[in-house]
Design brief:
- The chain is an alpha+beta fold.
- Helix content is 18%, strand content 26%.
- Strands 6, 7, 8, 9, 11, 13, 24, 25 and 26 form a 9-stranded mixed β-sheet that branches. It has a 6-stranded antiparallel β-sheet with strand order 14-22-16-20-19-18, with no helix packed on it.
- α5 packs parallel to α9.
- The mean pLDDT is 95.
- This is S8 family peptidase.
- InterPro entries: Pep_S8_CspA-like, Pept_S8A_subtilisin_clostridia, Peptidase_S8/S53_dom, Peptidase_S8/S53_dom_sf, Peptidase_S8/S53_subtilisin, Peptidase_S8_Asp-AS, Peptidase_S8_His-AS, Peptidase_S8_subtilisin-rel.
- Belongs to the peptidase S8 family.
- It comes from Lacrimispora xylanolytica.
């Protein structure tokens, strides 16, 4: 079995300069010009593997950022795009998600041939992977067309989307119009390139104390998927706009993670657009913030733990120059010892009055950022209110953020008592140059309460704009239609618009050197803004997506 699929190996993200240190001949998987994966064998996975190995080596876990429903779409909810001559012709739209139902009519031409250039299904074992990759199966347009005329298409192309999220996202971006079912994609003449992600390795879930049955994907597989998308676009010499409707609350929320950095690089290249969802953590009470300016220099906060959350983690990210200790008190008021910051510490805490255990890494210098990180991982602890006290080791003012996991990695029964809805943009929505999209209810004009809020931890303006994201009509597997809600849906909507701008710039020859960042700045510049609000702000960014104004501006050039 390939090491990238083998649960006996960790997949660490390393800088390419370190390859000679790790290379044993068959344990390196290239990701991009800056990073690679090194596959490290481990006979018995242990919590303190994170501690012995730096936090930044482990890929973060990402979750889906929209909810798909089988509800019949509302007639009033049909996406409205002004009548133009731009439909994404000549442009590729790329999606890295749960796969696609390639048999759905919205992904075919009128002659029933496919509009999909290729699919890389990372879940298929024992098949022929794409050139330059070592796992999964690639299904080309020619093979998909053969499957579509076959009586048993899944025997030729066995790639399916059992979740439905990827199919929905792809259809909003580029689905063919179907008035009978009240459906229309934004760029119905764009071609699609699709990556179906494999689920995260069990060992990565284990080290981050994530339930094994939780659906999530690892950062490194997403990065490989994006490399595949850009490779297809380069081979065909065509522009591409990539939609990422996945997010993670891990990391410093500062745009410096491996995936965020990769996307930030790509979007500044010619003919490569990137649109990212802002996440749906705005009203989940999974973020806490404190600033302490006066003595005594400590802060206490509380976490309500639900009964069904048997395993989860929590991250505390102080600002420089803070150096903080932490102590933890149970619902029965038994308090741990003080855990001071160390370079590579990993401590297991147990209590006499309650069951369960807590693993604490109070990392003085997290290697990627240079900031302090306090990582807490909980297993089998009792429900109730838990108490945390953090304080300055040097007796000076400090501030910090604290985040719980995103999406389905934890239930809504576990939350901070005095939570803060701000700074809840998920990675990679914290990247500086990719377009980060929040969601609003297009029927009322109001922001969706669950939409992630900015700014980033380092004060970068995010989200960039808001887009429709409430019960958007979409395709779902098995030839059906439904609706999708969330910032992932809003990102897909915006990706379709970005593809039409790429068509104007590149396919129509108006500005062939266009970069994704330039497309993003145009979208931001032409956003609709309420005269009663100040922009940018941490809820709407620079305003609402306004395609009609953009098209007027472009077509008048």
């Amino acid at each position: 079995m390939e090491k990238i699929l083998d649960n006996r190996f960790y997949d660490f993200i390393i800088n390419n300069a370190l390859i000679p240190t790790y290379n044993t001949g068959d344990n390196i998987t290239p990701v991009n010009d800056l990073t690679s994966l090194v596959h490290i064998p481990k006979d018995q996975m242990e919590p303190c593997d994170l501690g012995k190995n730096s936090y930044h080596l482990f890929p973060a876990l990402f979750t889906l950022e929209s909810t798909v429903s089988c509800d019949e779409p509302d007639v009033k909810a049909l996406q409205e795009i002004q009548d133009t001559t731009m439909y994404g012709r000549g442009v590729l739209v790329g999606v890295v998600d749960t796969g696609i139902d390639y048999r759905h009519p919205v992904f075919t031409h009128n002659d029933r041939t496919t509009r999909i250039i290729s699919i890389w299904d990372q879940t298929q074992e024992g098949s022929v992977p794409p050139r330059g990759f070592t796992f999964g199966a690639e299904y080309t347009r020619e093979l998909i067309n053969f499957a579509l005329i076959s009586d048993q298409p899944l025997t030729l192309v066995p790639s399916v989307d059992t979740i439905g999220h990827g199919t929905a996202i792809a259809s909003i971006m580029a689905g063919r119009r179907d008035d009978a079912h009240n459906f229309a994609g934004i760029s119905p003449e764009a071609d699609l390139v699709v990556v179906k992600l494999k689920e995260a390795k069990a060992n990565l879930k284990e080290v981050f104390f994530v339930p094994q049955n939780a659906l999530c994907y690892q950062e490194s597989d997403i990065m490989l998927g994006i490399r595949y998308l850009t490779g297809v676009a380069s081979r065909l010499n065509r522009p591409i706009v990539i939609c990422l409707a996945l997010g993670s609350s891990q990391g410093g929320h500062d745009g410096r993670g491996p995936l965020s950095s990769y996307l930030d690089y790509l979007v500044q290249l010619p003919r490569t657009g990137v649109v990212v969802s802002a996440g749906n953590e705005g009203n989940n009470q999974r973020h806490y913030y404190n600033r302490t300016d006066i003595a005594p220099f400590y802060n206490s906060f509380q976490l309500s733990v639900g009964r069904i959350d048997q395993e989860f983690m929590m991250e505390i990210w102080p600002y420089i120059p803070s150096s903080l200790f932490i102590e933890i008190t149970t619902p029965t008021y038994e308090t741990s010892q003080i855990i001071n910051p160390t370079v590579e510490g990993c401590q297991r805490i147990t209590y006499q009055t309650v069951n369960g255990e807590i693993w604490v890494n109070n990392i003085l210098f997290e290697e990627e950022t240079g900031d302090q990180l306090i990582l807490l991982r909980f297993r089998n602890i009792p429900s109730g209110t838990w108490y945390f006290r953090v304080g300055s080791m040097t007796g000076e003012p400090f501030s910090f953020h604290c985040w719980l996991p995103s999406g389905n990695l934890i239930s809504n029964e576990t939350f901070f008592i005095n939570s803060d809805p701000n700074t809840t943009i998920t990675a990679a929505g914290d990247s500086a140059h990719p377009l980060t999209i929040t969601a609003y209810n297009q029927q009322t004009g109001e922001i969706l309460l669950e939409s992630g809020r900015g700014y980033t931890r380092l004060g970068i303006v995010k989200p960039d704009i808001g887009a429709p994201g409430y019960r958007i009509p979409c395709a779902i597997p098995e030839g059906r239609y439904g609706t999708i809600t969330g910032t992932g849906a809003a990102a897909a909507h915006t990706t379709g618009v970005a593809a039409t701008i790429m068509e104007w710039a590149y396919s129509k020859g108006n500005y062939t050197a266009v970069t994704g960042n330039q497309v993003n700045r145009l979208i931001i510049r032409e956003a609709a803004r309420d005269e009663n609000q100040t922009y940018p702000n941490n809820i709407w960014g620079y305003g609402k997506l306004d395609p009609s104004e953009m098209y007027k501006r472009l077509l008048s050039q």
